[in-house]
């Protein structure tokens, strides 16, 4: 599987994962409305997680550790061999393996179904939800809710499965089910809100990446 596609499939879920921190009930719609209100008070956020990709068509599996920081519509993501930075207008995707930096308009994220500006309300316009009951993950009883993308443009995934520990009020796992047989599982390791983030984290400083090729894909 193309490594940039792995990253792209991970970005949306990265943004989804860090918004979940309130109790869940069997009325998934009512819960998501309360979650939207709760999330407005998070301020700047930092979260870490482990992601596991399984491509059934090619019998491929890969694991990566990710860290994401977000402040408003700005974000800084470290995911495996990628560093992705956005100031809300421009997105820089730096690939360590080839020392290349791809520059794109933030609108391209919207076109891919990943819009950081809708982080706390992403499910309101683009998803329908379904309560799926309870499951056991790593010895914990968790609540399971499915999100299904809606809208005119088809997303690269058909379902996002959310597993929530209601006792500790934290997301335990999310699974993105790809349309082409690729699933990505995300296990949340840590979550912090109201963190202090240096504004420089949201701009790409070429001096920190000696010799990097800048590939500008903006129109």
Distance between the termini: 27 Å
- How large is the share of residues in beta strands? over 45%
Quickly give the structural class.
alpha+beta
What's the domain count?
A: 1
User: In CATH, what is the homologous superfamily?
Assistant: Lipoprotein localisation LolA/LolB/LppX
SSE map:
Blueprint: H1 3-17, H2 28-39, E1 45-55, E2 60-71, E3 74-79, E4 82-86, E5 90-95, E6 100-105, H3 107-111, H4 122-126, E7 127-137, E8 140-149, E9 157-165, E10 170-178, E11 182-193, E12 213-216
Parallel strand pairs: 6-12
Antiparallel strand pairs: 1-2, 1-11, 2-3, 3-4, 4-5, 5-6, 7-8, 8-9, 9-10, 10-11
Explain how this protein is built.
The chain has helices at residues 3-17, 28-39, 107-111, 122-126; strands at residues 45-55, 60-71, 74-79, 82-86, 90-95, 100-105, 127-137, 140-149, 157-165, 170-178, 182-193, 213-216. With 219 residues, it is an alpha+beta fold. The chain has one domain (3-216): outer membrane lipoprotein receptor (LolB), chain A. The chain has a twelve-stranded mixed sheet with strand order 7-8-9-10-11-1-2-3-4-5-6-12. The two termini are 27 Å apart. The model is unreliable at 20-25 (pLDDT under 50).
What is the gist of this entry?
The protein contains four helices and twelve strands; from the N terminus they run ααββββββααββββββ.
Give descriptors for this structure.
globular; 17% helix; 219 residues; single chain; twelve-stranded mixed sheet
């Amino acid at each position: 599987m193309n490594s940039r596609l792995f990253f792209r499939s991970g970005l949306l879920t990265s943004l989804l994962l860090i918004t979940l921190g309130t109790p869940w009930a069997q009325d998934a719609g009512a819960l998501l409305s309360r979650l939207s209100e709760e999330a407005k008070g998070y301020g700047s956020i930092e979260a870490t997680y482990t992601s596991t990709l399984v491509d059934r068509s090619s019998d491929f599996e890969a694991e990566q550790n990710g860290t994401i920081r977000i402040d408003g519509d700005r974000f800084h993501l470290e995911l495996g061999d990628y560093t992705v930075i956005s100031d809300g207008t421009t997105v820089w995707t730096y690939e360590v393996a080839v020392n290349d930096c791809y520059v794109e308009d933030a609108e391209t994220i919207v076109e891919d179904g990943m819009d950081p500006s809708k982080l706390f309300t992403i499910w309101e316009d683009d998803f329908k939800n379904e309560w799926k009951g309870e499951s056991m993950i790593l010895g914990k009883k968790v609540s399971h809710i499915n999100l299904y993308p809606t809208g005119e443009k088809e997303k690269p995934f058909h379902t996002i499965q959310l597993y929530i520990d209601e006792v500790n009020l934290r997301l335990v796992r999310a699974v993105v089910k790809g349309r082409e047989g690729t699933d990505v599982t995300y296990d949340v390791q840590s979550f912090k809100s109201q963190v202090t983030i240096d504004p420089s984290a949201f701009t790409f400083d070429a001096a920190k990446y000696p010799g990097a090729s800048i590939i500008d894909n903006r129109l």
